[in-house]
Amino acid sequence: MKQKLNYDLLVIGAGAAGFYAAREAARAGLKTAIVEKNELGGTAFYWGSLPVKMIADKIKAYQKTKKMLPEFKLDLKKTDFLLQAADFKKIEAKIKKDLSQAGADLFYGEGHFNSAHEFELKEKLIKAERVILASGSQVKTNAGLELEQEPIISHKEAVSFKKLPESMLIIGMNIEGAEFASIFSFLGVKVYILDQKDSLLPGIDQDLTKVLKQELEKNGVEIMTSTTLKKAEITELKNQKVVKVEVESNLNSKQTKTTRAVQVETAQGASSTGTKTLIVDKILFTAGREANFPAGIEKMQLAFNKQGLQVNSKLQTTNPAVYALGDLNGNFGIASTAINDALIAVNELKQLDIFKNKLKAHYKKPVTHLKTAAAQTIPLNIFTLPEIGGFGLSETQLKAKNIAYRVQKYYFKDCWRSLISQKKGFVKIMLAAESEKILGVYFVGDQLSEIVSSLSLTADLELKDLLENIYIQPTRTEILREAALMEPKLGSSF
Ligand SMILES: Cc1cc2nc3c(=O)[nH]c(=O)nc-3n(C[C@H](O)[C@H](O)[C@H](O)COP(=O)(O)OP(=O)(O)OC[C@H]3O[C@@H](n4cnc5c(N)ncnc54)[C@H](O)[C@@H]3O)c2cc1C
């Protein structure tokens, strides 16, 4: 006989979206259950985004000390920049504590839906008035390779390495691929990165990626653009599993349309014989993701679109009792918007008549400030070394849209605060050609995320807003005033 449990809200998945939805709904007074099949935290907090930044933070601390105190020495081979089991425990402990303090019930396991209101989890039958699906996404490989088959890995294994590999091929020059290339090359791993597209971080302005590219190449990264993975075969070298890879490069596709096979000599010394082959310890896939749909989803009367589950601006699926958040709805695929989705969905739930009497006094106030991610500026931050970040329209986008614009640029090396600590990087402000309206602001440099995040709070900016602001002195954020004081140049800065 199953144990019957009744809830106002059932949340599936304790990643960015699910955790925020369950915590905020429970805080507001809804009887909330959350179910997680793996570790708490999902891709955002446990398996991807946050761990990468935690490792990068350690590296940045080292880099900064080294720049400021040239006599500082550390044996990098003996220093552990990777995360420890205790770090992951801390992440899970915070989620557990927050959920428990809010009053949400946490269950582990992978159950299935019998209907939109009934979920079976081992010996439990959970009934819920409303359901939030937040089961995220997972890496999808190509080239017929299966993940979790050593040495083919995803971000999950990459953030939890106990021992670093000697060499690695990263498939995908997207944000994730570029971040991993930065941290692993700094840590001494021989990194190759390939993409069928013709640039590193496609879509990002080239003057920004140029600074990153120089840094990656300085750390020995081989960047293979317009290149595809043709064949990969698991084999053994010195009693260790490695992957023999054939990559095909269409380097001069635009000029000659010729294709040629490329062989890259490995750090481990494979021989070179004309046609090039790559032998690496690990292949890290970053190049595609697919949604994780919970079992029984076909019994919930939901519609799907190309990206994932179809939702309206309230994040409601085609079944009004069911919401789909974060990577599952496929709208943006980032944690910042997944969290925003959660706040919007909970705000919608709070306004339902069936829940109004359950809300705690503080949470009865109508919330009017929330906007869907689609309706607001989404800031961007790429946590490479150096970082790239900003918001609004980039020059690439402005050119594609044929919008005339002016640019004002200023360099971190000329800012008081970073005069001796930062040689590289700049900010550029893109202004409308005929007015003072700011169309976009983009940076490349060290530790940008806090600057970008606070600036995008007021993304609807005019140049005078940057000039009127009184900046804390001395800070790196003053680069905005310095750039705002420059004479604008019409058109492209690269
Ligand atoms: C390496 C990497 C770096 C990234 N960096 C950034 C970044 O810097 N900034 C940013 O904004 N975004 C970043 N992202 C993207 C971000 O991590 C995701 O967009 C975000 O995690 C999506 O949140 P989510 O809640 O939808 O899914 P997730 O965080 O993946 O959570 C889904 C949860 O649901 C669980 N689950 C799945 N199926 C079931 C089931 N049937 N039953 C119970 N539980 C289930 C999963 O185990 C998981 O815990 C990064 C992604 C990667 C891979």
Keyword list:
FAD/NAD(P)-binding domain; 494 residues; binds flavin-adenine dinucleotide; six-stranded antiparallel beta sheet; Enolase-like, domain 1; single chain; 25% strand; seven-stranded mixed beta sheet; alpha/beta; globular; 3 domains; 24 strands
Structural features, described:
There is one protein chain. This protein is of the alpha/beta class and 494 residues long. The protein has 3 domains: 3-139 and 289-374, FAD/NAD(P)-binding domain; 152-285, FAD/NAD(P)-binding domain; 386-490, Enolase-like, domain 1, CATH 3.30.390. It contains 13 helices and 24 strands. The protein has helices at 16-28, 42-47, 49-68, 85-102, 155-158, 175-186, 206-218, 335-350, 353-356, 395-400, 449-455, 463-468, 479-484, and strands at residues 3-12, 32-36, 105-108, 112-115, 118-121, 124-133, 137-139, 152-153, 167-171, 190-194, 222-224, 227-237, 240-249, 260-262, 278-280, 282-285, 289-291, 322-324, 380-382, 387-392, 405-411, 426-432, 438-445, 489-490. The model is unreliable at 252-275 (pLDDT under 50). Bound molecules: flavin-adenine dinucleotide. Flavin-adenine dinucleotide binds next to α1, β2, α2, α3 and α8. This is FAD-dependent pyridine nucleotide-disulfide oxidoreductase.
